[in-house]
Design goal:
The protein has 95 residues and is mainly α. It has two domains: 56 residues; 36 residues. Helix content is 76%, strand content 0%.
């Protein structure tokens, strides 16, 4: 019988990583309390430390990135549409 993977929400990951950063209890204690592997807590802790700069970045921020990603998606969709139309018209014209 296969064991299904447990999906842990981002909020819980952040909570566990913050507790690990505070070092009020050991990572082993946190792993037992939340029933996750010790290595996973270390990975979340490192990820939180690496991504913390983005929270205070006065540059583009998340809204700027989201708008950029949306614009790129729209442009890719338009390119796909124009490619399909070009191929259709090329077939119809006998090329």
């Amino acid at each position: 019988m296969k064991k299904t993977r447990r999906k842990i929400e981002a909020a819980l990951k952040a909570k566990i990583a913050l507790e690990a950063l505070r070092e009020q209890s050991t990572v082993t204690d946190l792993a037992q309390r939340y029933q996750v592997h010790v290595n996973q807590i270390y990975a979340w802790k490192k990820q939180l430390q690496d991504q913390a700069v983005r929270a205070f970045d006065a540059g583009a921020g998340r809204d700027g990135e989201a708008a950029h990603e949306l614009e790129v998606e729209k442009l890719h969709a338009k390119i796909g549409q124009l490619t399909v139309e070009r191929d259709f018209l090329a077939r119809r014209s006998g090329r």
